[in-house]
Write the structure tokens for this entry.
Amino acid sequence: MPITPPSPTPGHAGLFVAFEGGDGAGKSTQAGLLRSALEAIGREVVLTREPGGTELGAAIRQVLLHGDHVAPRAEALLFAADRAHHVATVVRPALDRGAVVLTDRYLDSSIAYQGQARALSQDDIRDISLWATEGLLPDLTVLLDVSAGEGRSRRAGVHDRLEREADAFHEAVREGFLLLAEREPGRYLVLDAATEPVVLHQAVCRELATRHPGLSALVPVGDERAPRPACRSRAADPAGGEAS
Ligand SMILES: Nc1ncnc2c1ncn2[C@@H]1O[C@H](COP(=O)(O)OP(=O)(O)OP(=O)(O)O)[C@@H](O)[C@H]1O
Ligand SMILES: [Mg+2]
């Protein structure tokens, strides 16, 4: 079922960036590199993840990823409960004080995994998450597009409950992410996850520096001796002034 693009995010002082993609795509690697680059220019960075970015979330993560079978609708609600608590207690307070929040997965993961791959209604999944987060959407979502086979080959021996799903499930997840990015291209940077990590990191920094004038000084980790000249803004800056 086609999904309608969600309504815009209410304004906040900070900048909200989500890393999305299948298991093993390189989300944690890229989030960590971006954190270092942002901290090097003096920005406060909150690096967090879903599920499990809070104490309550860690308990939810345990039952979701390391417990027994969870019915698909219960799975969707548990992810949304984790997200509601995460946004209310970690993400929004950080954005309100002007920090950059980097989250390793956000609501697109729910739409791709529970909506597309579990064959629940994508509109329902999106609506539950938007209700849970009072409409908070990332300013930028970096989608690391990875094939099921490549993702599997990168994961270590231990697989959680979702990682153990068959390749067909992971290909459906991939398709779900790509459809979301196609429908709302302005909110996404889609990158081929098979590219070298350092090259992906450079692309992420370039995108942020271009979109947000306040980040024009951003230099990719490893490029410190060759700082780029400030870029002109290519798009409106949703984070606004000082914090963008
Ligand atoms: N661009 C890349 N090319 C090749 N290997 C990579 C790349 N990025 C990360 N890796 C490697 O792939 C593995 C998974 O990376 P990472 O943990 O960052 O992915 P992830 O998307 O966070 O995975 P998960 O969904 O399991 O948390 C790691 O061993 C990492 O070093
Ligand atoms: Mg990870």
Summary: The chain has one domain: 15-215. The mean pLDDT is 89.
